[in-house]
Amino acid sequence: MNVIDASALAKFVLKEEGWREVIPFLKRAESVDHALKEVANAIWKARRSGFIGDEDASKKFEALLALTSENVELVDESDLLPVAFGLALARGITVYDALYVSLAKRDGLPLVTSDEAQGKVARGLGVRVILV
C-alpha cells in the first residue's frame, strides 16, 4: 500500500507523459479526499486549455470517480490538517502538498508523486518517495 498524490493521479487520468509508470501504484493506495477535487480541477484545466474536449473531460472525470471508489481509498484529511499546516509553514510547501506528506508519514507508507519539491520535503521527514 502507498499514498498517491494528485499530481500522480492527474498524470494517470490525463495520460500525461509517463502515465503508465503510475499504474503499479494504483492497485492498493490511499490519498486525502482533497485529491479528488485537485484532479477534477486538472481535468477542467485541460479542457479550458483546449487539450481535451468536453466528451473526453467527462470520460476522464468518470474514470477518476471509478478509480477512487475501487482502487484508491480516500482518507478524511481533517485530522491531518493541523500537522500539514505546520509542515507547510516550516518547509515552504503548500498545505495541499503537506497533506499527502502528513498522511504518508502518519501511516508509514511510501508517497507516490510527480512533484519533486514535495518529494524532497517528504524524504527529509523520513518518508520513502516514489517519483513517477
Counting structural domains, the number is 1
Q: CATH topology, anyone? A: Rossmann fold
Silhouette: globular
The number of helices is 6
- The named CATH superfamily: 5'-nuclease
**CA-atom Rg in angstroms:** 14 Å
Report the structural category: alpha/beta
Proper CATH architecture: 3-Layer(aba) Sandwich
Q: Which runs of at least 5 residues are low in confidence (pLDDT < 50)?
A: none
Tell me the series of helices and strands, N- to C-terminal: EHEHHEHHEHE
Q: Mind explaining what this structure looks like?
A:
There is one protein chain. This protein is of the alpha/beta class. It has a single domain, classed as Rossmann fold (3-Layer(aba) Sandwich), CATH 3.40.50. It contains six helices and five strands; from the N terminus they run βαβααβααβαβ. The protein has helices at residues 6-13, 34-48, 54-70, 81-91, 95-107, 116-124; strands spanning 2-4, 29-32, 72-75, 111-113, 129-131. Strands 3-2-1-4-5 form a five-stranded parallel beta sheet, sandwiched between helices. β1, α1 (6-13) and β2 form a beta-alpha-beta unit. The longest helix has 17 residues, at 54-70. It is globular and about 40 Å long. The model has no long low-confidence stretch (mean pLDDT 97).
